[in-house]
Amino acid sequence: MPRPEKATSSLAPLADTCLGYLAEHPEELLAFMHHAGLDPDALRKAVGTPALQRGLVDYFASNEPILLALCANSAISPEDFMRVFHQINRTEY
Known about the structure:
Layout: H1 4-24, H2 26-36, H3 40-46, H4 50-61, H5 64-74, H6 78-88
Helix pairs in contact: 1-2, 1-4, 1-6, 4-6
């Protein structure tokens, strides 16, 4: 089973890729900001935080069209993306 540290170390670069994709697609960025309840200033302040990183990955994981577009444009397989998503959202019992 993958170690949680690996998921955490994979989260930041994946979130950066998500944010970069949104920056290149303003209509998608606005949709994300609306979904997350962020205005431009709040988004700027949140960049790099674990909460925003998780939020970005969760948002892409829940939106198949932009997930697939991100993966196609970033040489990331959807399976690798979802692996990180599942690792950061795994609940310990």
